[in-house]
Amino acid sequence: MPYRSGRHFLQIPGPTNVPQRILRALSRPTIDHRGPEFAELSLEVLEGLQRIFQTSGPVIIYPSSGTGAWEAALVNTLSPGDKVLMFETGHFATLWRNMAAALGLEVDFVPTDWRHGVDPEVVEEKLFEDRDHRIKSVMAVHNETSTGVTSRIPLIRNAMDRANHPALLMVDTISSLASIDYRHEQWGVDVTVGCSQKGLMLPPGLGLNAISEKALLASGSAKLPRSFWDWEAMLTANKQGFFPYTPATNLLYGLQEAIQMLEEEGLQNVFERHHRHAEATRRAVRAWGLEILCAEPAEYSSSLTAVMMPEGFDADELLALILKKFDMCLGIGLGKVKGKIFRIGHLGYFNDLMLAGTLSGLELGLSIAGIPFSKGGADAALEYLKDTLR
Length: 390
Ligand SMILES: Cc1ncc(COP(=O)(O)O)c(C=O)c1O
Fold this sequence. Notes:
Layout: E1 9-11, H1 20-26, H2 36-53, E2 59-62, H3 66-77, E3 83-88, H4 91-102, E4 106-111, H5 120-129, E5 135-141, E6 143-144, E7 149-150, H6 153-162, E8 168-172, E9 191-195, E10 207-211, H7 213-221, H8 231-238, H9 249-265, H10 267-287, E11 291-292, E12 304-308, H11 315-326, E13 328-332, E14 341-345, H12 352-368, H13 377-387
Parallel strand pairs: 1-13, 3-4, 3-5, 5-8, 8-9
Antiparallel strand pairs: 2-10, 6-7, 9-10, 11-12, 12-14, 13-14
Helix pairs in contact: 1-9, 2-9, 5-6, 9-10, 10-13, 11-12, 12-13
This protein binds pyridoxal-5'-phosphate (PLP).
Pyridoxal-5'-phosphate binds at residues 14, 65-67, 92, 141, 145, 172, 174-175, 195, 204.
């Protein structure tokens, strides 16, 4: 790679930019994970995560990526042959489905057009028809990172309650946690899956499960094989601030700093900041005359915006050009929409001028790539940012 002056723009929807404060925390000397100083640190971050997930129940931290936390949710609560209800909202929902099938679960996978979230009416219908309660869990990706569509979890919960069905509710919040309002306890979610490298502003390496009492009860009789992911061993050790195996000590320093930063800003302000940057981005996209992939305004994502390319133009080529000319990474289209869309990440450690730089880089890229579009998107975003300054 040629030498590049100035700062790289990492505007993929995760991993996100890691702030200096967190980088400094990560660089502290590693300590004995069986000593008193470590126990203090882990009890503090385990409690802090409860506030981030908005729950009074336990949160588990694995030294893993988000995929590990997906697996933990499944193997701790379900048994071979159990039926689960999932929705093809995009690439990540598909990967989670593939994992469930590989683990021996029977998946009812409801298709969507990748432009909408989980339809609560379908949830209600499917559960209502399931009179002998074969469906053991409903699983949803809160914010589908491949499409920029946010499913409405409270509506899914209400649909499950209307059908009076005992299935567990499991939710992937990998790209919404600490970016979009999410309430594990109030919304009656049984297992919430999260990870470190998005709204928490950390590098990859921590997988998270928030657990309800009902999920904990289900884990008592769940028969899928598990060892590394076993909640019981983890919860027992966590009570004293320890782990059943070597934890990712330095990432926990980073997590401590991240929780502090999120609380200094205030979680509600964090959500509002993401919402405002998402709206500014959508104004830019509309001014360019391009189409947002998410077809339902009530499901617009505050973490990222996926944009459809005009017919006959390849999104991957545009992003390669922007990387080469302006040292900025944007998210490529994944799975079915590869080459057809690009994704603007606006989550994590981010501010108005970072967004202005991101949108300006994109506008320059569209222009030099010869893509038909109208100028003025970055200006439209700036106008909105100015009007909504606090
Ligand atoms: C919504 C969602 N779920 C799951 C994953 C998988 O997480 P990981 O790549 O950390 O294993 C991702 C990764 O981007 C994601 O965005």
